[in-house]
Specification:
Blueprint: H1 2-22, H2 30-33, H3 51-75, H4 83-88
């Protein structure tokens, strides 16, 4: 489900970018409003919205909703376990309670003690 939301989110972002770049800016008609015979006012016509502006609003709404959805998914995702936490769930090996007796070292100088350097 999350991958579908990511795909829709990216498509909505690209759609908003493309539609905004295709639209005609309101400032472009300002020079025409001062005597060139333009029918619009100083900051563009105040008529009904055309197809591009409505499509941009729809893509922006979809982008906003998918942003909220991705935020929800990221906040409700199970946290990954760290190395120490994942080791707790594994079966622990059985360790012997006592270590086996180590036989005394063979060879060496007669009468030398453990850890002593023979002369």
């Amino acid at each position: 489900m999350e991958t579908v939301v990511w795909a829709v989110h990216i498509l909505a972002a690209l759609g908003v970018i493309g539609l905004v770049l295709m639209q005609h800016g309101k400032g472009a008609d300002m020079g025409a409003a001062f005597g060139s015979g333009a029918s619009g006012s100083l900051f563009g016509s105040s008529g009904s919205a055309n197809f591009l502006s409505r499509a941009t609003a729809i893509f922006a709404a979809v982008f906003f909703l998918t942003s909220l959805g991705l935020t929800y998914f990221s906040s409700h995702k199970s946290r990954p376990m760290g190395v120490m936490e994942s080791q707790k769930n594994l079966v622990q090996p059985v360790m012997p309670k006592t270590l086996p007796a180590v036989p005394p070292a063979q060879g060496g100088a007669a009468g030398s003690k453990v850890g002593e350097i023979p002369k």
